[in-house]
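thought: fold this chain, then report.
action: predict
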Amino acid sequence: MKSRLPNALRSVRVRLLVIALLPMLVLLPILLGSTVWRWSGKVDAILVNKVTGDLTIADQYLGQLIETSGERVDAVARSVDLQQVLDAGKLDDFLASERAKLGFDFLHITSDDTWPVVQGALGGQWQSRIDVFDAGTLTALSPDLANHAEIPLVPTRGAVPTNRSVETRGLVIHSAAPLILPDGTRAALVGGRLLNRNLDFIDTINALVYRDESLPDGSQGTATLFLDDVRISTNVRLFENVRALGTRVSAEVRAQVLDEGRVWLDSAFVVNDWYISAYEPILDSYGTPVGMLYVGFLETPFSAAKRNSVITLSAAFLLIALVSVPVFLRWAGRIFRPLEGMTRTINRVESGDLSARNPPVKADGEIAQVARHFDSLLDGLEQRDRELREWGDTLEQRVADRTRDLREAHQQLEQTTERLIISEKLAAVGEITASVAHEINNPVAVIQGNLDLARSNLGDAAQKADEEFRLIDDQVYRIGVIVSKLLHFASPEEYSGADRLVDPSQVLNDCLVLTRHQIDAARITCTVEAANISSVRISRTELQQVIVNLILNAVHAMPGGGTLHVTTDEEANEIVLTVKDTGKGIDPATLARIFDPFFTTKQAQGTGLGLSISRQIVSRAGGQITAQSTPGVGSTFEVRLPVEKI
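observation:
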């Protein structure tokens, strides 16, 4: 066996096939893959450049807002009306009117130089910055302002752990302008706008950055203002109509932007999806990073576009290969077929047929000349053989006995050779089997050992994952069975088809383990009645696919929670599996089409193929699937499969 492989690789047929197929099946895929990889990198760079420009626009708008706030405060401080009010002593009403007119949350006169912006104003130059006011400062300005700034923190995946439950500080555009009081004292007119929950501000940024048709269908632009790592103003949605106020940025982004003061330009997980994101630090009047400005857009449409492009290119390559490979093989066949014809002729001559000749070759090339010359050599060989036979007639009698002995020895030699070949094959099979079994059993033993160790270390806590541990045990046992079959490769048993007999109740329990997270997340109460019933003949994975699809459809039908009732029963030589929910139900017009391919009521969340494929699977197994529904009450799906009689 070992000597045959090198001979096959040295054959003309193999070499010609390699020459013909190497460019198409090896070099072209490598070139195509490298091109797609470079193209994907270019697309990622373009997306980063776009989000960089988006961040620049948002930063310019925020800077303009800060500067405009300072200019407006300075204009009021320089106004004649303010000087007249100061002289008349009616300051409070005037400041309240101007605060409402300018859209500020506070406007007052002070000589306290605690803040750098006030220090600048007292020095004669208006200042405008972003500062963080604590709850006490906000309460002193206005109790309503402190209440408006308060934002409960929402637990966020990947964020830095914290003991805080609410954000009470406020991020404020803080502006101050110089003012001379009637007694000649220097003071500052201080005004500002609270950015916590300022949705008009963040929606304006989003509208400026992501205009209509600036992103492909399916993508969505978002903008967010952070105080420290907490979202205090955002259009990112936590749910459909609930903004993600109080959620926090990931620890990785926080470390780079707030701790290191560097801009983040990369993909990032934002609340509940991946976005092409840009974050930059926001500095207060002391030059300290106190927050972040974020813009970004959904990554999913671009990832889908790249994936579809790869699929399209791969399909085009396969189509070209299917068309061109037969042509290459036909060209190569014109070369190796005449050579194979000569090989067959040699075998016939070696077997004693000296009249064997090469088939006629239509081409008039080098191979045709070799074939004709070979035929002439065979003609001479046949003539010599005829003469030798005539000469050998006189010796035939004397060598008859010797020939008989040689024939017997030859037969014994053939039998011995055959036994040696069989022994060599069995030895090779045994060597391969032992090697494979050893390589598989080692990791299986490690898995089983660590699983037992995990049970031991977890103690009573392991009961929470008892079902998952059992599934792992089953899969480890399955690997052991495969290894056992491999060890008996030399004498395999007959295939019985019993591996397609499954217990629907057991499959149902496995499916409930797989869908437990979705059921619990939707706050659904699940009741199960899995009776001890007969087996059915169906692929286990296909039955799992049907049950999981029905359970997930029921979960989607109860977004606000409800009750899911799943049962298995045996009726008149049929196994009946029922999935019943208390969801919103299906109207009769929609119910008549739910098994149609590509029909879906989930809009962009579904493909419309789940129930269609489930019906095909059940039909192939000789069963049927039906649905009943009452709008506002719920839906019931029944799967009926014939009992397998053993």
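thought: worth noting. The CA atoms of residues 20 and 330 lie 10 Å apart.
final: tokens above.
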